[in-house]
Amino acid sequence: MPRGRYSLHDLHDHTLLGEEHFQCAPGPSGWRYVSQTIAPSGDHLGSVDLTLDELGRPIRLELHAASWQVRGAALEGVTWVRTDPTGTHATEGNVRAHAFTGTSPAFLVATSRLLRLTPDSPATRVRLVAFTDPVLAPRTVDQSWALVNSEAHATDNGPLTVDEYQVSALDTGEQHTIHIAGDVVLSAPGIELEALESPPSPR
């Protein structure tokens, strides 16, 4: 069960936004990731609880940030309920999309598990509902994912395969690279793996 800590940075000026303390593991349904995000001041910023089925589809998502809450799942596309900090207003949404995304590294792992790309796969288009901080506002985004390299590295625990993905935002054309080993993000824009207590689980 990988357990560790990511640092999260502003994409533009690289300011430290916080740290995400996480643990994740394969389970009877597929894969689960839970985390708590802490501000540089030590204040609690939010949490993520994401469960995927064996095909990589989100069967349960619960997000908390700034007293806002989102609960969602793959249902006729993806469906979610977003509740305001007072708890008096809840709005439901549904989009013909494949999965969810957001600032947590969990969503990068989840999308890679959903797409199951190989180096021979063509670039694959995916539609995601992104929940943006700090109020978890939903926004539909279209991305293109390609697995450009998959390389095994020798470690004390045996070979570790690192996958390099090129991800393109289809609305702006912006491209970036992410590196994933099993169910742990090694590097991505705004994300750095700072500590890892046990090896990643195989993909």
UniProtKB/TrEMBL annotation:
Protein name: Glycolipid-binding domain-containing protein
Taxonomic lineage of the native organism: Bacteria, Bacillati, Actinomycetota, Actinomycetes, Kitasatosporales
Domain of life: Bacteria
